[in-house]
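Revision sheet: structure tokens.
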Amino acid sequence: MAGGINDHIHLDRAKMKSQSRVSPGLVAVIVYDGLSLFEYGCAVEVFGLPRPEMGDNWYRFATCAAESGMLRGSGGIQVQPDDGLELLAKAKTIIVPGWRGIEAPVPTELCHALRKANERGARVMSICTGAFVLAAAGLLDGKRATTHWRHAAVLAARYPKVRVEADVLYIDAGDVLTSAGSAAGIDLCLHLIRRDLGPHAANQVARRLVMPPHREGGQAQYIEEPVSKRSNSSLAPLLDAVRATLGEEWSIERMAAQTATSTRTFQRHFVNAMGMPPGEWLLMERMARARVLLEETDLSMDEISVQVGFVTASTLRNHFRTRLGTSPGTYRRRFKISETR
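Predicted:
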């Protein structure tokens, strides 16, 4: 897997904004003829729905036409935008939800408007093939970026200045963000909420979506080989059992025994199903649980370490430094959910 997790989600003070001090502002979503409806729907579902439980400090939302004339989405659905490209001058975040085809040219006016908005400080984000639009605008030059794995090689060949990474869910490069295909766009949207408003807000939205609250950007984006129904069905109870008992020792041998397979067969099937080795998955689960406990409880470092299976606080600290570039204590001070939030 290319890059470390802390490369994809680095806990930078400049990026992590307190919801009490910073307004998330206007999210403008680009709409165009041939609109990719699923990717567009991801942006609408996360940022465009009323969320009274969030109070006044929530995103404003609008759609912006990339071109004049009638705009239809796939399936013949007509889209009525709120405004034209001039809207980008007011947006704090701009989302490009896919593109009508990787061979389809990107209008010069759209490229110019995106560059101008980014130069004045707007963040620009793409979902799936929307990365081709950002690349055409020159916004990915010299930066790491991703797109759907099927199109990553084309993106890299067409735009050699872009450092394309095909095996990640999303990449946050600060003012330019890119995601892999479709559902990875939701992961990136949730990451952006976490970055702007903190983990509690992101978790609330994830619950509404019936989604995992946080998937690391460095996670593999696709399954290389199909998994048989038998092996797939045998993994589900194992994953549930491990998550319910993270404090216990889970060796490869114990996991394999749980699925009634040999260690070799188990590891092969696990990688095919999850996109990573079982040890890496277990570490990510333990890290995710540790983050929740740091955010939502007053448990000591020793108590958290035992609960998630790291056993000692020093092991917990080592993993936080390696994975997130920070310490558990600093993470808690930055993201602890207060009683009044």
